Amino acid sequence: MKIFLISRTTQQVITVDIQDQKATSFSNIRVEGLISPYYDAYFEKDGVLVPYILSKLNFIKLLLFTRYYQKYLVNGKTLRPSTTRTKQLSFVYLTSNGMNKSLYRKQMWGYFFGKLVNIFYPYNRPNLVFEKSSDRAQESGMVYFEFVTEKYPKEKNYFIIKKSSTDLARVKKYTNIVMHGSFKYFYLLIRSKMFISSETPVHAYFWRENMGLTANVVRTKPYVFLQHGVLGFKKLDNMFYGDRLTAPIRLITSSQFEQYIVTENLGYDAKKVPITGLARWDLIDLKRERTNLRDKILLFYTWRPWLDDVDDETFATSEYLSSINKSIQLIKQINLDKEIIVMMHPKMQASLSEKEISNIRLWTDSDGPLNELMSSVALLITDYSSLAWEAYYREIPVIFDMFDQQRYEKEVGSYIDLNRIPFGSKVDSKISDNVQQIIAQDYQMTEEELQEKGMYFAFQDQNASQRIHDVIQNIDLRAINREKRRLIVRAAFRIIFKR
Q1: How many helices, marked H, and strands, marked E, lie in the chain?
Q2: What is the pTM of this model?
Q3: pLDDT for the residue 325
């Protein structure tokens, strides 16, 4: 039987043969020419391509035991059959995320013992704290973990981190550190009662490992979303909507302005969106900040989702690359007494020539935590990054270089009107004009910006972690877990028995 694999992003069509409709046959297909990460399967009926819908048995197999059907390819990537929510057969083609047979065995035993202990000893379950890809220890997750470890040492809180992390040295002094991929790690994914993180639960697990028993536990685990920046310039994924099973049980905010965005746009009750301030800002002493030597100009551009799957040739001719490069060159032409620092996506960095990056410094995670860098920044230039809000909190002038605003609003979206940004200046024609204006202001914010700062930051102290802890202590997890179990059962019946 012939099936047609169609890329979700590029619409590339690949024709393959399958021997029969067993799940094992899906993992044994011979296919070449894959370039995108996700493909959906179709078959031809009456001259029209229609979705290939799995049987209920195959749907359950691929949903719960997807790893069993994964194929490791000679090019270092993996191909595995999967399923969508509508039971359509799909395929995931990705670089290996590090999940191998040895880790799979650890996961199996960790899942078994975690479930067993939870049944016979459902008390004193710990919290798991982590940051981006379980590879960082420099944001709100780590700040909160350090706070509760030192002030409330009897509470059980563990921090997940990878052995390869450049931040590993800074956390080794703590005993409750869990190595990502260890048996203890897999056990605690199941045993823990709650996640606390500046990222979504998938960052506690393996990249794009979204099927299987453990993956389903991770995806539905109650979690407190600490956030890594203030909401405003970028819309959240629909997994954050208040009525979703994947929504956080508490979403931390920094002001009534931000709380209003969440309650109005994401459907949360105000009590689930507490105003505490961000934990990472506990590291910021504003009085000291104002006297710091600010000798750097930071350019921080966010990535674009529509560039995820394009080839190198397409990226080389993209508006994204040309616009950012143009801005960098214009800034370099100004007679500055500051060091120019550039942070951007690795693909962007790799695309700039040595001449283009001369006299600037490319900053990566290995150069140090971003919060430490920010303490010496005199001017931030960005597009839509939430880092702009931290700059505002630190009283650092901001220039917004929104060169692709129309497409960004259409494909990503913003909660605020990008034509009326609440602070900073927006590039109108040449970015060098905006920079010259900031230089004329001696790298200071305007009086109006300073006066309105209180509208966007309810607290400007170093007690956010304590307020967050108070919120967490008052969460009724029993009621939340009852509701989650009800939603899981309902979702399972709806997916399995839906025709």
Answers
A1: 19, 19
A2: 0.85
A3: 92
